[in-house]
Amino acid sequence: MSIGTNLRKLREDHKFTQEQVAEKVDVSFQAVSSWERDEYKPDTDKLIRLAAVFDVSVSAIVEERSNVFDMKDTIYNWEHMRTYVKATAKSLGLTDTMKAVDYAVKAHEGQTRKRSDVPYIYHPLNLACHALSMDIREDEVIAACLLHDVVEDCGKTYEELPVDDRTRELVKLLTHSKTTDKDRDAVMKRYYDAIARDPQASLIKCIDRCNNITTMAWGLRRERIYRTIKETEMYFPRLLKTVKADPRYNNAGWLLKYQIESMIEIYKRLM
Fold this sequence. Notes:
Blueprint: H1 3-13, H2 18-25, H3 29-36, H4 44-54, H5 58-62, H6 78-92, H7 95-107, H8 122-133, H9 139-147, H10 150-154, H11 165-174, H12 184-196, H13 199-219, H14 222-245, H15 250-270
Helix pairs in contact: 2-3, 6-7, 6-8, 7-9, 8-9, 8-13, 9-11, 11-13, 12-14, 13-14, 13-15, 14-15
């Protein structure tokens, strides 16, 4: 693809008009139009500003791409995952999980994943399916996978969760308070320190990070991707060590370490 084609595709993906891009870059819309038609090329200063507008690297604008892939935001249907989790929970007698499924669906109703139309419930259901696929069968773990964001994101309280005290404790460990640029490092250190002392909370948080990493290419801006990579490298080796030290989760820990570290390395190379 040419620079012009790349610019047009990026603009359309962001649902911007040529006038809106022109205003953000401080040029005329005729200039944007001429760039997209490959009549002229933006100078270096404008390329840097365009990259910031579209939240991509300059190379994503200037490199010719001969292959364009169809991309999808989800792999599985969230309703199918809900059916699978409920059926599995019933067959295994996971009573808290059975209650947590419908509670989580209702709590997250109307919410979507960042910068997408994907229903938010896709995320906690994905965590529950991920855990089950690794042969994790503890009721409190699967239920906490489903409920880990309802207090933080849905205004629910720990007391009203339809689960036992242990599951509530896990949800509490996995919930962190809002942060500012000033206090974020201190808040996150306390948060991860507490999780690292609990094998089940560490397991859920690692599964959570796996899922978040796989979606951050379209769900997060570049500066947030950088921050996530740094945070992952800082805190997750300790969590993985906690997971692998528990005989129940040794195999899961091996898989999670591979998934997290390989995805992080891919992002670092591509960015």
